[in-house]
Amino acid sequence: MENTALDRGTEWLARGGLRPTRQRLSLASLLVGDGLNRHVTAESLFALSVESGDRVSLATVYNTLRAFCSAGLMNEVVVDGSKSYFDTRMDDHPHFYWEDTAELTDAPKDQLEISGLPDAPEGTEISRVDVVIRLKRT
């Protein structure tokens, strides 16, 4: 039997130790219900929820995305210091940011080579390195 979007959303929330409230289930089903990884903004996820007929406020979408990140289910990728994308793919990988469409997509991980990171200040450790490659069409 194939998992439904709701089943996938429920399992995903359980992996993060989150209680499956109606709003969380609705948004989780939109994010992982088809089994694919995606990059969303709060606004784009809100639009998807409206299209699906769910009643979830934009503030709830923001709060829920933050809860998903805190639970280790998503990563936040900040572009331009003011625009955040939320990524359901959790392994370390670079991103392309398409300036003309404001879209974030995965970049080939096997083609990126990082060498020579600076030492972390005393009493800290590097938790991750985000790489966003900005693209402009010619």
From TrEMBL:
Coiled coil: none annotated. Keywords: Cytoplasm, DNA-binding, Iron, Metal-binding, Repressor, Transcription, Transcription regulation, Zinc. It holds the Pfam family FUR. InterPro entries: FUR, WH-like_DNA-bd_sf, WH_DNA-bd_sf. SUPFAM superfamilies: Winged helix' DNA-binding domain (SSF46785). It comes from the Bacteria. GO terms for molecular function: DNA-binding transcription factor activity; transcription cis-regulatory region binding; zinc ion binding. GO terms for cellular component: cytoplasm. Gene3D superfamilies: Winged helix-like DNA-binding domain superfamily/Winged helix DNA-binding domain. This is Ferric uptake regulation protein. The gene is fur.
